[in-house]
Design a protein that fits this description.
Elements (H helix, E strand, L loop, with lengths): L5 E3 L11 H10 L1 H8 L3 E12 L2 E11 L4 E11 L2 H18 L8 E8 L2 H4 L7 E8 L1
Parallel strand pairs: 1-6, 4-5, 5-6
Antiparallel strand pairs: 2-3, 3-4
């Protein structure tokens, strides 16, 4: 369903140190191209989507809706190699969306981690089929 790697255009920008905030900025600047990179049926819902958990707030990097799959798609951006805590964080967000946001007629929420490099040693233990990982390349 998701391309790997996802190509993110940064134009002629020189990058000394990439941050998640900068990566998100590049994605939002070329949102139409990114939607096509992600695949078919994606619609942009929001960036830094705020959710309230107890007395604190959490922020989901990017939220999309896929009209072909009839579900929300949550994306977490990671500028480093995949880490086990990244999967746990996204699983939490997916469960939150499934419980608090999605309607009965929507399918289960999908989570995507877009990171610099996949780690097959971590991925082989991820049994949650609604969490997928894709790498990114800056072009």
């Amino acid at each position: 369903m998701i391309k790997d790697p996802i190509l993110i255009s940064i134009g002629n920008t020189k990058i000394d140190k990439l941050t998640e905030k900068a990566l998100k900025k590049y994605i939002l600047e070329s949102i139409e191209k990114i939607l096509l990179e992600l695949g078919v049926g994606f619609s942009f819902v929001g960036s830094e989507k705020k959710i309230k958990v107890g007395n604190s707030y959490r922020y989901i990097d990017l939220v999309f809706f896929n009209y072909e799959l009839n579900c929300f798609v949550l994306i977490e951006l990671k500028i480093n190699k995949l880490d086990i805590k990244d999967i746990g964080q996204l699983e939490f967000y997916v469960r939150y969306y499934d419980t608090e946001i999605k309607k009965d007629f929507h399918n289960t929420t999908i989570g995507i981690i877009i990171c610099k490099k996949n780690d097959i040693n971590i991925l082989k233990y991820n049994k949650n089929s609604n969490i997928v990982v894709s790498s990114f390349e800056l072009i």
